[in-house]
Amino acid sequence: MHIHILGICGTFMGSLALLARARGHRVTGSDQNVYPPMSDQLAAAGIELIEGYDPAQLDPAPDLVVVGNALSRGNPAVEYLLDQGLPYTSGAQMLAEIVLPGRWVLAVAGTHGKTTTSSMLAWILEHAGLAPGYLIGGVPGNFGVSARLGETPFFVVEADEYDTAFFDKRSKFVHYRPRTAILNNLEFDHADIFADLGAIQTQFHHLIRTIPSQGRIILPAGEAALEATLDKGCWSEVERFAEGGAPGYRLERADGGAFTVLDGDREAGRVEWDLTGRHNVNNAMAALLAARHVGVTLADGAAALCEFQGVKRRMELRGEVAGVRVYDDFAHHPTAIATTLEGLRRKVGKERVLAVIEPRSNTMRLGRHRDALAASTADADRVIWYQPPGLDWSLEPVVADSPVPASVSRDLEELVATVAAESGPLHVVVMSNGGFGGVHEKLLTALRASHR
């Protein structure tokens, strides 16, 4: 079958293309911006890429057109496929129909931590010899690619609450029908499609309705928004974990770099790794319990996590020059900013931390989180906020309310020059859910030049 994907260079759609190609389908695709690393992954898999959305790409007609959720009415390719009556579907529906039938789906949902937790879970299953398939919204260090079919019934999927397509406004995860579901946390986000937290809870409850009675939901204890969602009705097994709980964990280092896994009144395993932050310990516990649901012991899972290599763009160390360490992090929500900086602070002690933050997400652009931004940076020593084009509100009030020294930059080259003048020891955490103009490499290049 010839499958053509509109919007193929997004992480989800590109990963889906790799899976469809692995199933033996001919896959082509297009996007407004065709660029690495996804374009490189797709080209290596023999997938033809087309720049732009000229309707000519749909003539002759493919057997199926998959429409990414970034496309809407008015797009020339979308209008052509509707006018011509071509068969079309969404990416989530295609995943459900072509890849997931007959699989034991382990879905990871929540406002924060989905990519990291999915990567942990896939690696635990791989380490145990279960050779899972997976589709993850990032590139796990232990695998090097964002998706694969796998060799067994087990399939790990990052279960996103964002809407499915212009013609299907349900969350993507409603299509996946998991047997094991992790619900990491739940906060208001995606203000471009959700009016309030209640609207997101409704979608999460749609997911809960699809989990079988012998399936299992795993969540941290005390998450009020998740508990309120479960109170709407739950028909599956529920397992909660907590620090010091049964099951749960005991921190051995304050930065989360070592912890003991607790199963009732016994110690089931110990994890020592390079990750930081209590949020990552919670992610790990959720992954361990999900893996236990398919037969992996907590001890074996803990041993696997000691070899976990993290995920690209999740506190990824991009380089070090003259004691200045530059990290790339995907954080784009006040809670994620705060927990990331807290974990780093606990790890580095009194060494200086500089946060460089681009408020780029749709919710940030709408200004829904601006009142919480200043406080989220309390564990940094200094913050540079980047005012990107298209952000229609000023970051100056955030700077005024900042608990630490802060400034606003509107010029990327000026920002780079400011940071390049620093010397170590210093930890520079660059936070954005986009490419941020390649600022990470620009910073490292400028630091090398200034410290020759």
From TrEMBL:
GO molecular function: ATP binding; UDP-N-acetylmuramate-L-alanyl-gamma-D-glutamyl-meso-2,6-diaminoheptanedioate ligase activity
Keyword Protease (UniProt): no
Superkingdom as given in the UniProt entry: Bacteria
SUPFAM superfamilies registered for this protein in UniProt: MurCD N-terminal domain, MurD-like peptide ligases, catalytic domain, MurD-like peptide ligases, peptide-binding domain
GO biological process terms, semicolon-separated: cell division; cell wall organization; peptidoglycan biosynthetic process; peptidoglycan turnover; regulation of cell shape
Annotated function: Reutilizes the intact tripeptide L-alanyl-gamma-D-glutamyl-meso-diaminopimelate by linking it to UDP-N-acetylmuramate.
Name assigned to this protein: UDP-N-acetylmuramate--L-alanyl-gamma-D-glutamyl-meso-2,6-diaminoheptandioate ligase
Organism of origin: Alloalcanivorax marinus
Gene name for this UniProt entry: mpl
